[in-house]
Amino acid sequence: MSQLLQLPAELIEHTLSFIEAPDDIFNISKVSRRLYNVSTPFRYQTLVVAIPSRGVYGYIKWNPQKAFAKVSEPWYRHLKHLEISYYRPDEPYRPWKLRIPGVSGSEVRAVNHTYTAASMRLLNLETLSRYLLGMIERLPQGQLRSFTPIIRDDPEIEVYAVAIDIVLFMCISATQNNLTSLAIEVNAAFIADCTECDFPHLKSLGLSRARFHAHAEDHAILSLLYNCQNTLIKLVWVITEFASWSAAEYLALFREAYEEWRQCERCCQSGGDPAEQKSIVLSKLKTWRVYNMEGDFIQLLYDMGIMKGASVANFSLTYVSEFLDMASENGDLKLDVLLPRLFQQRHDGGVLGSHLMTFRGLTTFALQSQDSEFFGAGWGMWFDGLKCHAASLRCLNISFAGLPISQTRLTHLGMSCRNLEFVTLEMEDRLPFGILDKTFFPKLKYFRNPKQMYPIRMDDVSGPQEDLRLLIDSNICEALADGVLSGTLRIVAFGSPGVGDISWVSGLAFRIERGLEGSPKVSVVTGNEESESGEAASIRTRAMTRLEYMDAMKGLSGYVDYFDIAPLDTVG
Length: 572
Prior knowledge:
This protein is of the alpha/beta class. It has helices at 2-5, 9-16, 28-35, 64-69, 121-136, 166-175, 215-228, 247-262, 295-303, 320-329, 349-356, 372-376, 379-387, 407-416, 462-482, 534-537, 546-555, and strands spanning 46-52, 81-87, 109-111, 146-149, 162-163, 181-186, 204-209, 234-239, 287-291, 314-317, 337-342, 364-369, 395-399, 422-424, 446-449, 456-457, 491-500, 504-514, 523-526, 529-532, 539-543. Helices cover 29% and strands 19% of the residues. β19 (523-526) and β20 form a beta hairpin. α5 packs parallel to α6, α7 (215-228) crosses α8 and α11 packs parallel to α13. The chain is globular.
């Protein structure tokens, strides 16, 4: 590290772009701290502000003044993406482990990990907003492109939006209205319910709302939706603490707030006639992700016309059956991606299956359920629903939390859905033979068995790594002997290879490489004779590093491992 710091900053930037993960600079926060005083900082386009959290127990004490003191003007001179990350200090997947500068060097994440003194949620809102305001005020007008949290599928830290105050929001609206992505928590700070905002290029909007007794929050939400309805492609809408109010009570409040907003004479951002009732129609919306909204609320959005004109292609919801019901009744259902997260109530797989039969065209189906025994009992029925999408289905990701799928079900799946390229299923066997068989999966590129693997030390993986590699080689040989070896399968993974740090990993991934000269020859047994296969001799199986695996996942035709890697991407 000391030798590295002697280099000119431009060379340091170039060098880090090509370093994979040596021990002494793997911790990106350590690197950032040591390089703060370099005369010419990197051309960072993304800056992450990391806030330690105890998850459901609140925020850990930290000192934003100390944290922001080292982030001087040169560090955000080229800033385009500002991200807020909440994390648990004891977790292996801390924010500075998310990414190391890539080979392209096009995006580098600077993480400041110097939080030592005190704050709770309210102080966090006020203080964080103040320091962010000081930073954003110094940015060239219109430079910022996104202001969002780092979205992570962590039940302990379900953060989908950044809590800010109205002063910071007004500053962003006034000086950075070239934003294409914005995610904010609409809270008591938004008491100026007729705030004018202008985001003419906004494509992705994240909204989180926790309080149900004030119209100000709903007024602000409706104003935001109205302002960006002609450009909005993606909407993430989260309601927290829903259990503290009845659904009927909130529906009445929201309906009342909507009628008040329509007739409001003070918030006509578009310059229209104040006497004319406004309306919201999200006609360009393609991605809609909502959490903790019951079916009656979604129906209300359709009745108001807000969602009726939307041609949603990508949808995620806890109460997925109700949405499919209403979407099919209110127009042609043209879903491309469906991501049910069935956590909060008991679901019958048969109900979901019946809805899947009402339309065609799914390319991605990622199902996550903790009530595996109850939901899995309806496997046959919802599987029949998936078969209605056999021609288009490319990606299947099923997480049943302890309900493994049999070899018979897997082969049935492959014979029905012939275009599958990416499959993640918890299997009874570590590596089912069928995945290497082109008879069942003629186009398969990636397979993962997510069955829980205990964390393994990176420097002591020879045992499990070698066992799994030999298991894959054995299956390759058997498939070769039968003449059915898949020519498309590239990655086979176990556990969660994308989760871990410098010392521990939660899974292992292997790359199957073909056409390599000098590869070790593999003996294939045919009947009672043993011979060397020329085809086998050009195939090599090798373990992948965690970072190589994550990069490969990003390059697999846009595939996302929804339940291991951040599921909500930024638009724009």
